[in-house]
Design brief:
Layout (H helix, E strand, L loop, with lengths): L2 H12 L2 H6 L4 H5 L9 H20 L11 H5 L12 H10 L2 H21 L11 H10 L7 H8 L4 H26 L7
């Protein structure tokens, strides 16, 4: 098994969770959190999709993001280019009120499809390439993906490889946040798969 096969095994396993997460949740429950320390489920779905879109399409494959294809920002109902890291509670709440939830689900699916395509085409040797400072600054700072946290994100990613970033933002980061989202779901008294 090579690195890409391992990635796909875990990545495709993750894809079962978002539909389970939102099943039976009301719009109110999706847009709000029952605890101020936890982000709403809609924000988590948006944030993880944005992070994956930015990482895979801009930093790894060096191509246009899904967000920029087919007017997704307008369809989702937000004008933000950022991935959401460092947003205040007020900003999170405002975003969650504006999100078009059905379009958000469709965006998440489009990002998944594009990730699978990009990783399938990616030569395994490119996973060992180091992320360049120039590309990190271009995407996170100049293109606005990092928002107010752009410099700190660039510093954290600096010196890592494309393989590390793929594993981080398309796998471990998403699994981390899906656990948070299921905690929110559980606080609403809804069942979880575990």
């Amino acid at each position: 098994m090579d690195a890409k096969q391992l990635f796909f095994e875990r990545y495709r396993g993750y894809q079962e969770y978002p539909p389970l997460l939102v099943s039976g949740m009301s719009e109110q429950q999706l847009r709000h959190s029952p605890h101020p320390a936890l982000n709403p489920v809609s924000w988590i779905l948006w944030h993880t999709a944005r992070c994956e879109d930015m990482a895979v399409n801009r930093l790894i494959a060096d191509r246009q993001q899904v967000l920029d294809d087919g007017s997704w920002a307008t369809r989702i109902g937000v004008s933000l280019r950022q991935i959401g890291t460092g947003m205040t509670g007020e900003e999170v709440g405002d975003l969650c009120e504006r999100l078009n939830l059905s379009e958000l689900v469709a965006y998440r699916e489009a990002v998944t499809e594009r990730t699978e395509e990009a990783v399938t085409r990616l030569p395994v040797k490119e996973l060992s390439e180091e992320l360049t400072v120039q590309m990190l600054r271009k995407v996170l700072v100049e293109e606005g993906a990092g928002g107010s946290a752009a410099e700190s994100i660039a510093g954290m990613y600096r010196g890592n490889t494309k393989g590390w970033l793929l594993g981080h933002l398309a796998l471990t980061h998403s699994y981390y946040h899906i656990g948070q989202a299921f905690a929110v779901r559980r606080m609403y008294g809804l069942p979880t798969p575990w």
